[in-house]
Design brief:
The chain is of the alpha+beta class. The protein has one domain: Electron Transport, Fmn-binding Protein, Chain A (Pnp Oxidase, Chain A, Roll), CATH 2.30.110. The protein has helices at about 10-20, 65-70, 85-90, 100-105, 145-150, 170-174, and strands at about 5, 25-30, 35-40, 45-50, 50-60, 75-80, 110, 120, 120-135, 155-170.
């Protein structure tokens, strides 16, 4: 069945569960049109500046970082159970080394509003356009957070993506 437009807030539970169980995939695309999926586990969503936003954390060392800097948009895809192998692959391999979509067996679908594609296999997709980005500041960070998340000093950039579209596969929503 075709994916239909939804209000992502009606399916926030799916996003929260995806963050807890490693079932969220961020997809960015370069100026050459090459898409790169990346499994994410640190993010949050909600209202800011009178808009609904999804905030994704991406380290500068990641291939995805350069893509997001180049194009300024991304999609967030909530994957259904059964895609654990693809999620693991996309969370452990770099797009610098090859086509992760092809290698993981996932299918890119052109974005409706943004340049980045969504994933055909996703239960829910958020299309996001970056409206703000900021780097974490080690000078103001709690020392326990610093030790846990940044022992090598590779601090995330936070991308605030306005959610400009949300789509779901009604058959997968359950």
């Amino acid at each position: 069945m075709a994916r239909v437009e939804v209000d992502y807030r009606d399916h926030f539970r799916l996003i929260a569960e995806g963050l807890q169980n490693g079932g969220l995939m961020l997809v960015a695309v370069g100026t050459d049109g090459r898409a790169n999926p990346m499994t994410i586990g640190w993010a949050f969503a909600g209202p800011a500046w009178g808009r609904q936003v999804f905030v994704a954390l991406v380290r500068p060392s990641r291939f995805t970082y350069g893509l997001m800097e180049a194009t300024g948009d991304f999609t967030v895809n909530v994957m259904a159970p059964g895609y654990e192998k693809a999620l693991s692959y996309c969370g452990s391999k770099s797009g610098r080394d090859g086509d992760k979509l092809a290698a993981s067996g996932l299918t890119g679908v052109p974005g409706r509003i943004v340049k980045a594609p969504s994933l055909a296999e996703a239960t829910l997709t958020l299309e996001c356009r970056v409206v703000e980005k900021t780097d974490l500041n080690p000078e103001t960070m709690d020392s326990a957070v610093m030790q846990l998340g940044y022992p090598k000093g590779d601090f995330h950039r936070l991308y605030f993506g306005e959610i400009v579209g949300a789509y779901a596969d009604p058959d997968r929503l359950g």
